């Protein structure tokens, strides 16, 4: 019998990436130069939000999606934070509510007016204080409205109930900075990666660690739940400093199911998973390309499809929710690529080539919609429920009826699990001490400059007074 190659049948093997034309990009945006490993970009079906470079605090732009082209330098900003903004995320159920976190240790909730901003926004509808150090990550619960998670450099994850404006739970199992958080489909489990080189699966309401992996050969950076398959995918670095991905069984993290080396570049690998098509996208920070794979239930689990290539490096990528895609063009995924060197946000559509113009049900199954499945009290009491699904067949035009109502409260001490979070401060790291030292040095130099300027002015005034006294009086 002669050998024959085995071809794998897949409806997504010809998916290709299509970058938008220049007039459909967002140009002239001062994208932040912050080196924090986040996307600095958030997208929903109505707005695009981008963290910008600014002096005297942190700010981000909110632009309606239809307002493409060049953005004016004086375009209104959301600029209420006193420190650099490190992460922003749109509420999945209320399209004009966005959460942000910052180096000023706060998490803030903003309500964007209809049609976008007309003037600078400095007042948040809700300010959340509970972390004792800067806050690096915020994450909304996938099925419950008004539940938000934040991870800070105090090694804590706080669960906020926005209906009361207080932290209701605290996850305190990490021994170093938390790098990434990911919920499973119904929000009953939380996966985290940490700088202590450990991957954890946590029950968020109790804070109990269900599974833990000490990744010695695969130093994890990012993690994502692969839908309802009970598997996790992590990106990281191998012992030879090559970029690597690993697939894990969420119920047994003793050994990864597979490990695969990607390349020898140094940029962080961002994973994106589409549960509807079972496609995985890998985009490297500082790269210009996006690789995509198909995830299977049997070995080899991971099948390479193709690669979108571009000469422009990406700082981060925003992802459009499913109900914001162009179904008529067979678009299955859309990125918003941040190109810092050009000040440009470039949409990239991933398209399945089909000749028929009718609705393609096989590539658009029922998908999580914009209606929450649970209230905060139900979820906190232990109830789990799958997301409410919707069809994309007729196009999604209905606006959510949910309205965000901020609670009225005063600033006070924040006590969770019997611990005052603002008092229980972990020791500062070496990098933080160095940053504090340099800030103090800059402040000392600034004060010295001010004093020298004042001394010069005083001498000028004394000389003018002396000259005035020497003027001869008229008889």
TrEMBL record:
Gene3D superfamilies assigned to the protein according to its UniProt record, in alphabetical order: YVTN repeat-like/Quinoprotein amine dehydrogenase (2.130.10.10)
GO molecular function: actin filament binding
UniProt keyword terms in alphabetical order: Actin-binding, Coiled coil, Repeat, WD repeat
Keyword Oxidoreductase: no
SUPFAM superfamilies named among the record's database cross-references: WD40 repeat-like
Coiled coil location: 444-471
Keyword Metal-binding: no
WD repeat feature ranges: 78-120, 128-170, 171-212
SMART domains membership: DUF1899 (SM01166), DUF1900 (SM01167), WD40 (SM00320)
Domain DUF1899, residue spans: 5-69
Family stated for the protein in its record: Belongs to the WD repeat coronin family.
PANTHER family linked: CORONIN, CORONIN-2B
Protein name per UniProt: Coronin
Species per Swiss-Prot/TrEMBL record: Mohoua ochrocephala
Source taxonomy: Eukaryota, Metazoa, Chordata, Craniata, Vertebrata
